[in-house]
Specification:
Oligomer: single chain
Radius of gyration: 25 Å
Number of helices: 15
Number of strands: 16
Distance between the termini: 50 Å
CATH topology of the largest domain: Transferase(Phosphotransferase), domain 1
Shape: elongated
Largest sheet: 6 strands, antiparallel
Strand order of the largest sheet: 6-7-8-9-11-10
């Protein structure tokens, strides 16, 4: 079976030696394995982030494998619960029958050969993948409900999933619900989706979308956030052409304030693009898409992952694969600002590698050469300095320079968050 993605398996056994054998066998097949000696801790993890399959011992203190199977099905529903493979040293036929009656996908008696576990795991993962794919393909139109949320309409669709406008029965205003379908959840994609939820939960700034709920339904992971009725800055550039300095200044001020807030919380966004800056019809400016966001103390992300992003807006240090900090976001913001003033992407070429070479060489226009106030243009050009030490060192420095170009009301509204 080669589905093009890396399956995730949870293994549970109170015997650490057997657990190590199971983990080794699972990893050897190219699957991601999370191990637990405690069924209670495993259950908590499974309900929050359901894996593709579960391999569990039958007899464990405090909770048997079958009891855990029942709890997972009760909470996730039989259609959404991942398949179980029960391991047991007891070959009793009645016990095996009970396991299948409970909903286990298969049963394996200890001691077992690695090949037996491999074959059984491959079989249940294949069935799980086929079931997920069939459910995904069957969704020709938007579902009527996702969990407790009534679906109003589809807003957008991308490689990771779909965004819907939804209504919660106990809330007045509609929300946006972002999904990640199970057929798309390789490990890196799921980690990105989880990171986006983790980063946004707990943040509070007028320039950041707010997350409300997260969960899983019918093979889809999802979370809900503010519904922004409007357009992305990318769409404005595409349909309306260049922005004036007066139009752009409040957008840059709000996003820079939001970035300063993130950076003080040790978070780097790493994907500042016109497509991730949302402009609502009622005048709000919001920064979205935190799938690539990184905590500055996070050492788990590799250098290769640091290259993720949109090449046209990457900072030189990101292109080089170096460690990045808030100044990288500021460079990307400068590239967004330059593009908005031009009405088009500032740096383009036939392939992303040529684009990145042009950025490294500084082959893009100077903002001061455009029809803007010299101080405003100089501020953008300072964001776009190739050398880190010549760039603004933090968002506050940039805000101080462009403050005269925005309304006092906006400055006052964001002032409390610029110190948070």
């Amino acid at each position: 079976m080669n589905s093009g993605r890396k399956f995730t398996v949870v293994a549970v056994d109170d015997d650490p030696v057997i657990l190590k054998v199971v983990q080794h066998t699972i990893n050897k097949q190219g699957y991601q394995c999370h191990t637990f000696t405690s069924p209670q801790k495993a259950l908590k993890h499974i309900l929050q982030w359901p894996p593709d399959a579960i391999v569990t011992d039958f007899n464990m203190p405090g909770m048997t494998g079958l009891e855990m199977c029942e709890r997972v099905q009760e909470n996730l529903g039989e259609d959404d619960a991942p398949p179980f493979l029960i391991l047991s040293a007891n070959p009793d036929e009645q016990l095996i029958e009970n396991a299948f009656d409970t909903g286990a996908a298969d049963y394996l008696c200890k001691p077992f050969a690695a090949g037996e576990l491999k074959v059984k795991l491959k079989r249940i993962l294949k069935k799980a993948a086929e079931k997920s794919a069939q459910r995904y393909m069957a969704m020709d139109g938007p579902p009527a409900k996702i969990g407790v949320f009534d679906v109003i309409r589809e807003i957008g669709r991308g490689g990771m999933g779909v965004v819907y406008a939804v209504h919660h029965p106990e809330r007045e205003l509609p929300l946006a619900l972002k999904t990640l379908h199970a057929s798309k959840t390789d490990v890196e994609t799921l980690l990105r989706f989880r990171r986006e939820i983790d980063v946004l939960t707990g943040l509070d700034h007028p320039g950041l979308v707010h997350v409300y709920d997260a969960g899983q339904h019918n093979g889809m992971y999802f979370y809900t956030m503010d519904l922004v009725e409007g357009q992305a800055l990318r769409d404005k550039m595409c349909f309306e052409g260049p922005s004036t300095m007066e139009e752009l200044a409040p957008v840059l001020y709000t996003i820079a304030s939001a970035l300063g807030y993130l950076h003080r919380h040790k978070i780097v966004h790493r994907d500042i693009t016109p497509g991730n800056i949302l402009l609502s019809y009622d005048g709000k400016v919001l920064l979205a898409d935190f799938g690539l966001a990184k905590y500055l103390c996070d050492s788990q992300l590799t250098a290769d992952q640091d290259m993720l992003g949109t090449p046209n807006y990457m900072s030189p240090e990101t292109i080089l694969g170096n460690n990045v900090d808030g100044r990288s976001d500021l460079f990307s913001l400068g590239m967004v600002a330059l593009g908005a003033l031009l009405g088009e992407t500032p740096v383009t070429s036939d392939n992303p590698y040529s684009t990145m070479r042009k950025i490294m060489a500084g082959e893009f226009p100077e903002a001061q050469s455009l029809k803007v106030h010299p101080a405003f243009g100089h501020a953008i050009d300072t964001l776009l300095e190739l050398e880190l030490k010549k760039r603004f060192q933090n968002a506050d420095q940039f805000l101080a320079v462009i403050k005269p170009f925005v309304s006092p009301d906006l400055v006052a509204a964001l002032a409390p968050f610029d110190k948070a």
